[in-house]
Amino acid sequence: MKMVIGGDSHPYFMYLLDHEVTEDQTNLLNSLMISMNSRRRYLVDNREIIDTTALISDNILNKLKNHGITVQELNVNNMPNYHEFCGYIDKIMNSDINPKYLLTAMHRQSMFSELCELLLKDS
User: Fold this and answer.
1) Domain of life here (predicted)?
2) 121: closest CA among 103, 105, 106, 97?
3) pTM for the model
4) Looking at residue 47, what is its pLDDT?
């Protein structure tokens, strides 16, 4: 698979492959990023937080709950931060995942760019 995916054009996918991140873990990470990014956008626009978990399937919410991540955590009325992101990574990923490198790879692949910038500045 690594031969098919170019590391320069797909650094996030290469990072996932290099660290043997499962499809389930990837889905959980993407759902967390969607929720955090939604929250960021609402706060930037000075709007009240809505239920950002409405964007996430019940199946994924149950899996997050099994990892100790609650709906209440995802819907806090605070700007997402690096410490919060690291806490999620600790709960859903293997111990060899470096949150800063993961965010950098996502950013380089233009995934959740503004959220990644915010979290990286906070690191």
Assistant:
1) Bacteria
2) 103
3) 0.89
4) 77
